Structures are given as C-alpha cells and as structure tokens.
Amino acid sequence: MTTTAEHTYRRRGLNPLHGVLLAGTFVLFLGATLSDYAYLSSYEIQWATFASWLIAGALVCNGLAFACGVIGLFGAFDRRRAFIHVALLLVSFVLGFINALMHAMDAWAMMPTGLILSIILTVLALVATWIGFSNTGVKVKKQ
C-alpha cells in the first residue's frame, strides 16, 4: 500500500502596513503623473505645485515601504521575488528623488522630463505593488 502525504505551507502574507504604503506610493505617483499631464495641457503653474507635493508624499510612502520590504526580506518565503520587490522600491525611490529635484525647478523648465519621470515612476510603483501583493498565497507540497 502506498501512502501520499500533502503538506500545506502557508506563505506569510504581506504586512498590512506594507500593503497600505505600497498602495499609497502607487496612487501618489499616479496623481503626480496626472498633475503633470494637466500642467502640460493647461500651463497652470498650480498643477506643477500639486505634482511636487504628490511626489513628496510618494517618496515618504515609498521610503517606509522600502523599510518594510527590507524587514520582510528576512522572513520571505520566495526570497528572489522579495529581493526584486525591494530593488524596485529602491530604484523608484532614487528616481523619485531625481523627479522631486526636477519639479523643484521652474515650472517651465521641468517639462517634459518631469512628466516622463512621473510616468516611469508610476509604472515602477505599479510593478512593485503587483509583486508585493502577489507574494501571498498557499503552496502545497506533495510527497
């Protein structure tokens, strides 16, 4: 008689604070992209100011999400995916800081580089959020 045993390993889910910070990072970078587009369409300087503040908030959320990601890296089930997630957060933080410096310039001087960086950061934040939330689930190991 042959017996088979199934072991269910439950992956440790995403920390709720980490999830909120990831979602905040994506939404704030998206808002900055939309504000940059509104500035490009209307040349109202207030939209550039909105984008600057949204980028500053996104950098705060991104930095805290990076800290949560580094802490979560030690207990990660899939270390490669967790490392990619942390690396994406680090790259988005560095590019976000450069984008904040671009937005600190004159409103006329920040275009189109500010908009392009905001689009790149929105995509990076979306990918980092996707990878962060897809690291949850149940893995069944059959013997």
TrEMBL record:
Residue ranges of the TM segments: 20-40, 52-75, 82-102, 108-133
Keywords: Membrane, Transmembrane, Transmembrane helix
Domain DUF2231: 16-132
Pfam families: DUF2231
InterPro entries referenced in this protein's UniProt entry, alphabetically: DUF2231_TM
Superkingdom of origin: Bacteria
Protein name: Membrane protein
